[in-house]
Amino acid sequence: MEEPLSRKQVKKLLRRAGSPDKLSLNQENMRGINLSMLNLSGASLTEANLNEANLSDADLSDAYLSNADLSDADLSDATLCGADLRGADLRGANLYGADLSEADLSYADLSYSDLGEATLYRTDLSYADLTEADLYEADFTEANLSGAIMPSGEKHP
After folding, report:
1. What is the CATH number of domain 1-157?
2. 147: how many CB neighbours lie within 10 A of its CB?
3. Which of 4, 10, 23, 122 qualifies as a cystine partner to 43, CB 3.0-4.6 A?
4. Which tens digits make up the pLDDT trace of 100-116?
5. What is the pLDDT of residues 21-75, one digit of tens each?
């Protein structure tokens, strides 16, 4: 198995790209990496392995994270406004206080995740799995929950 990228390597690639929206880390192994407080807005991380990664307080606005493995990742207080998280694996992820406004989480697996005090304004959660997720004080204003599996295991109409 390929050795995961380090924070130092990602920062070097970020400098080389010139701006976060030009950074492509698609399908990269970054398991367990600490990318907390980094600006990765607009970065392409499609199908990346970010299992157990620390992305707390990171700016992932408009980032491409479709089908990424973010299981057990720390995304607390992260900014994910407008991010593409379609089909992402967020099982057991810590999204406490995260801003997911207008993000696309359709078909994402959020089972057993912590979404306490998260902002999900106009977020697309259609067909997402929220089984056993902690939604304490989460803001779902204008969110699309059609077909989503709710924490109780029941499907939203």
Report:
1. 2.160.20.80
2. 14
3. 23
4. 999 999 999 999 999 99
5. 999 999 999 999 999 999 999 999 999 999 999 999 999 999 999 999 999 999 9
pLDDT of amino acid 152: 87
Can you give the residue ranges of every domain in the chain? 1-157
Burial of 110 by CB count in 10 Å (0-12 exposed, 13-18 middle, 19+ buried)? buried
Contacts from 30-38 at CB under 8 Å and sequence distance 24+? 30/4, 30/5, 31/4, 32/4, 33/4, 33/5, 33/6, 33/7, 34/7, 35/7, 35/10, 36/74, 38/10, 38/11, 38/14
pTM for the full predicted model? 0.95
The single residue listed with the structure tokens 């924490």 is 151
